[in-house]
Amino acid sequence: MNRLNFPGIKRKWLICFLEVSQTLHLSQAAERLHLTPRSLLRNLLALENKLATRLFIYTDRDDVVLMTEGIALLRLLSPINVQMQNLKGLPSDSALTFSQELALGWCSAWPIEVLPKLLEKLDSEFPDLYPRIHRCSQAQDLEQRILKGGLTLGLSCRQPQDPLLAWHAGSATPYVIAGLPQAIRPWHELNYVASTHSQAGSLHGPWDDLKFPRRIVLRVESFSGILDLASSGLAAAWLPLCLVSEFFKLQQMAMLASPPQEAALIPYLIWRADREISPLVQRTRSLLVHYIETELAR
Q1: Is 34 exposed, middle or buried (0-12, 13-18, 19+ CB in 10 A)?
Q2: Bridge partners, residue 276, by sequence
Q3: pLDDT tens readout for residues 85-133
């Protein structure tokens, strides 16, 4: 017992359990362990799942109550409680690495399919990875969330405006006129579905409707709505090639016309320049830089 030999149970779970047993309050325990309450709760639930029993009664005010099983475990751990408390302060002990949160923002202009590959790669290197993905409809929303600390990294569709934000630009992806496969026609003969947003950094492509007026029959809020309407044949859409390339491969969509103008969307990976970067964020940033420089250009 004094060797902390609990088969299948991680020491960090027991440390979390002991801290919460002392404070009986999730937020206070999380602060003392330098965790977010969500990460702390995740570790507690993992311990309960492994033991197949409830240890605490959780309330909606962050207060907890030790159940009979929790009291029994606390008594079982009492001979090594001091040792466990000492172990909390040893960051060099890899066995005590807590769940690492990754708060990643994703502008809807970019395909979401890369995320499973990204998270699989990160999970193999950071076993305690706890990802939070927030998809934003506009670049301005993404930038504000990073500035306020809600997100750590963001993949945007414009160069950030705030000097506190650092950025890395990737390879440009061209816009195309796409829709249900059909015979090629002049662009001005097509009906179009477009976004309700028109400002820079939104879902709306940089089409000059004053110089090249389109016949827009529908406007929708989301990219998914535009894709649904375009792929169903109800209208054509002016979209980044990277967003529809998979549809092209499956022959579910195709280029319908040659555009009268050239335009491209440039991916920007952004983060706060004044924040300390953890190894997890450094690795994520490295993988995303490779992605926006190579994968999106294909």
Answers
A1: exposed
A2: none
A3: 554 443 333 343 445 677 888 886 676 666 767 877 887 788 666 677 7
Q: Which CATH architecture has domain 100-162+267-297?
A: 3-Layer(aba) Sandwich (3.40)
Segments of the chain assigned to CATH 3.40.190.290: 173-265
How many other β-carbons are positioned within 10 Å of the β-carbon of residue 213?
Answer: 10
CA dist., res. 25 & res. 8, Å (int):
26
Task: State the CATH class of domain 173-265.
Answer: alpha beta
User: Could you give the CA distance from residue 232 to residue 62 in angstroms, rounded to a whole number?
Assistant: 48
Nearest to 212 by CA among 267, 149, 260: 260
CATH 1.10.3430.10, applies to 11-91? no
Handedness of CA 99, 116, 202, 232 (dihedral sign): negative
Residue of 179, 176, 201 lying closest to 264 (CA atoms): 176
- pTM > 0.70: no
Output the CA angle 132-31-271, nearest 5 degrees.
40
Element housing 178 (H / E): strand 173-179
Residue with tokens 């960051």: 91
